[in-house]
Amino acid sequence: MGLQALSAMAKGQNGVGAFILQCKRIDFHYCDYWGSSKGMVSFLKHRLAHFAKEHPSIEINVSPKPNHHPVIKGTFINGRIRAICVKNLEPTQIYQKALILRNASGDKVKRWNKPVRSDNPSVRGIWSPFHGAKVSLLSGKGS
Amino acid sequence: MIVDFLDVGVEPPSNPHVLGISFSIASRPLTGYRADGVGPPDLFMKPIRLRTQVPLYLRSPSRAHPHFLRSHPPTPFSLPQCRRYSAYAAQESASNPHPSFEDGQPIDRPRTRRWKDEELPSPLVQRSLSSPKLSALHARLSLPSRFPIQTLARALVTPSADPNPQFNNAALETLGSDLLGYYTSEYLLCHYPRIPIAILFAAQSAYVGSTALATIAKEWGVETAAHPGGEVDPGLLQHLKLASGEEVASPEEAWGNRRRTLSSRVLYDDQFGDLHKGVTTPFSNTNFKFPKDVPRETISNAEDHATGAEAEPVGIPVEDAYKSFVRALIGALYLHCGPIATKRFFQAHFLSRRLDVASLFQFRHPQRELAILCGREGFEAPVARLISETGRLSRHPVYVVGVYSGKDKLGEAAGASLMEARVRAAAAALKSWYLYSPLEVTLPSETEHAGEGFKWSPNMVDYGEVFV
């Protein structure tokens, strides 16, 4: 056996080709009795159908949670769950919170302090106009 | 009343969903027959109005018995996707399996009863219309609207959950597996005509192998049911899990200690060069002989078919369940939406994944292999020359060595020693030969739906790799 093959797996690049929204489910929990759910109930009555129509790829569950503050929970493709408490919020604010869940990737919030993340990192770094030899347009030579 | 392409019956009156309701079935044209979605006008289903609870028997010429099916909303496909009453009612009377029918004609109303969801092995078809998980998955994958959500539900039922081939995804999976293998291998072979067979197997496995498909299904957000059954959400992947401590029989054991070569992998094994699962090899059983003219695939499928329908369902690993879903989805997409949509989906979800084919190579004697290759191609024998070096007397020397055939540089690499750099340079030269990729490629499958201006340019076919 001269030549052998190593086993590998092609790596997914979401957005190259197909794009899969990472938020796959949002659960809305509300309470019928507590005043903190007032905005949430209004949201469920008047805004939720529109939100669901806008995002057909998100499964939406509505369930009562008596004697608790209202909460929305997002479940993501990577298996993580993110919950946002929406007590005493207006429907518009709850809509914004739902958008936060929609836009999230599900990963923990990380700090990225490198300007570029790449599968093929450049050996020489990113070109910068403020560094290196100065190019004169007249002579065509570096000074 | 005889209606072609349709196999339908009336719900027993106990079901509240159809009590007193009149609706028309399949008033839409039958789609999914051709790639362009245009079927001949006589393929349109005839609208039928169901007004009463009197049984209405419709006969399909291709079947021996008319079946009682649960009524369902109109679906634009002809796959038998409706839970059949008579099949389960017949289990109660073993002496006469079909008491209600004689010579294909109904003589009496079949003895049926209402089945609870939890008594069925897989969810009812009509429940898939009310599953938010299914519609979300349909939207998430951007499936065409022509792709029925009921078929998506069927693709999620593995044979380990429901052994009945009318309701599981086994048939769709077979088709999808072949399509995935076809599209991937033609892409690899046309874009890398000199790719060695071992690398081809590895690349094929990297794109559409078991692990890759399971990962893709998870990235699509597919979840598995804890246990299969008729009462679970149709949007969950249904498979019978392996019992604790249970192990899957390895096909390697059936093969025994016989030596597996590259030739045997090409001849006998599946598209990844791995042994077929659950297949008796020609050597493990002395009484077993393959007929000369029957391909091996047929035999393995026949065995599956023979054992699959009757035998007790066997648990499968979750990876296999995910794999079967992805394959079945591809097969169903091909049937409903045609090759163009399937290839677009394949391009978007499979080929768009990143794979560095060059990283799959593992050479043992690259210099020797390069010398043989040069001899075969009539090049001058390769010579390694030092191009540059730094830090020879230091702790970290770096040598840059090129391999030359005459005046042509075949490959170049850096190494920490002269020998290492020379070996790496030979490997680089071999990779650049094997991974040659033509600029213009026309895939054979493109001719299936070629338009007017399509121009076929023949693909390059290479002699093959060299063996050391």
From TrEMBL, chain A:
<keyword id="KW-0496">Mitochondrion</keyword>
<dbReference type="GO" id="GO:0005762">
    <property type="term" value="C:mitochondrial large ribosomal subunit"/>
</dbReference>
<dbReference type="Pfam" id="PF05047">
    <property type="entry name" value="L51_S25_CI-B8"/>
</dbReference>
<dbReference type="GO" id="GO:0032543">
    <property type="term" value="P:mitochondrial translation"/>
</dbReference>
<comment type="similarity">
    <text>Belongs to the mitochondrion-specific ribosomal protein mL43 family.</text>
</comment>
<keyword id="KW-0687">Ribonucleoprotein</keyword>
<protein>
    <recommendedName>
        <fullName>Large ribosomal subunit protein mL43</fullName>
    </recommendedName>
</protein>
<dbReference type="InterPro" id="IPR007741">
    <property type="entry name" value="Ribosomal_mL43/mS25/NADH_DH"/>
</dbReference>
<dbReference type="GO" id="GO:0003735">
    <property type="term" value="F:structural constituent of ribosome"/>
</dbReference>
<dbReference type="InterPro" id="IPR039927">
    <property type="entry name" value="Ribosomal_mL43"/>
</dbReference>
<dbReference type="InterPro" id="IPR036249">
    <property type="entry name" value="Thioredoxin-like_sf"/>
</dbReference>
<feature type="domain" description="Ribosomal protein/NADH dehydrogenase">
    <location>
        <begin position="32"/>
        <end position="105"/>
    </location>
</feature>
<keyword id="KW-0689">Ribosomal protein</keyword>
UniProtKB/TrEMBL annotation, chain B:
<keyword id="KW-0496">Mitochondrion</keyword>
<protein>
    <recommendedName>
        <fullName>Large ribosomal subunit protein mL44</fullName>
    </recommendedName>
</protein>
<keyword id="KW-0687">Ribonucleoprotein</keyword>
<feature type="region of interest" description="Disordered">
    <location>
        <begin position="90"/>
        <end position="119"/>
    </location>
</feature>
<keyword id="KW-0689">Ribosomal protein</keyword>
<feature type="compositionally biased region" description="Basic and acidic residues">
    <location>
        <begin position="106"/>
        <end position="119"/>
    </location>
</feature>
<dbReference type="GO" id="GO:0003735">
    <property type="term" value="F:structural constituent of ribosome"/>
</dbReference>
<dbReference type="InterPro" id="IPR044444">
    <property type="entry name" value="Ribosomal_mL44_DSRM_metazoa"/>
</dbReference>
<feature type="domain" description="RNase III">
    <location>
        <begin position="134"/>
        <end position="222"/>
    </location>
</feature>
<comment type="similarity">
    <text>Belongs to the ribonuclease III family. Mitochondrion-specific ribosomal protein mL44 subfamily.</text>
</comment>
<dbReference type="InterPro" id="IPR036389">
    <property type="entry name" value="RNase_III_sf"/>
</dbReference>
<dbReference type="GO" id="GO:0005739">
    <property type="term" value="C:mitochondrion"/>
</dbReference>
<dbReference type="InterPro" id="IPR014720">
    <property type="entry name" value="dsRBD_dom"/>
</dbReference>
<dbReference type="InterPro" id="IPR044443">
    <property type="entry name" value="Ribosomal_mL44_DSRM_fung"/>
</dbReference>
<dbReference type="InterPro" id="IPR000999">
    <property type="entry name" value="RNase_III_dom"/>
</dbReference>
<dbReference type="GO" id="GO:0006396">
    <property type="term" value="P:RNA processing"/>
</dbReference>
<dbReference type="GO" id="GO:0003725">
    <property type="term" value="F:double-stranded RNA binding"/>
</dbReference>
<keyword id="KW-0694">RNA-binding</keyword>
<dbReference type="Pfam" id="PF22892">
    <property type="entry name" value="DSRM_MRPL44"/>
</dbReference>
<dbReference type="GO" id="GO:0004525">
    <property type="term" value="F:ribonuclease III activity"/>
</dbReference>
